[in-house]
Amino acid sequence: MAEIVNLRTARKRRDRAEKARKADENRALHGRTKGQKTTEATERERALARLDGHRREPAAPDETP
What we know:
By secondary structure, the protein is mainly α. It contains two helices and no strands. The longest helix is centred in the N-terminal third of the chain and has 24 residues, at 7-30.
């Protein structure tokens, strides 16, 4: 005798598994925490500030020596 299956719950179970797989895939592709993003942005700003601090020529191009 065959096993009786509720199609509605089977469909929901299948859809949840598909959503979980898709979420895992997206985490692998785009997964960076907010802390990692802010740390990277802070490091980028510090590097730009350090680079600007080491300039030899004036910041404004209209000033001639």
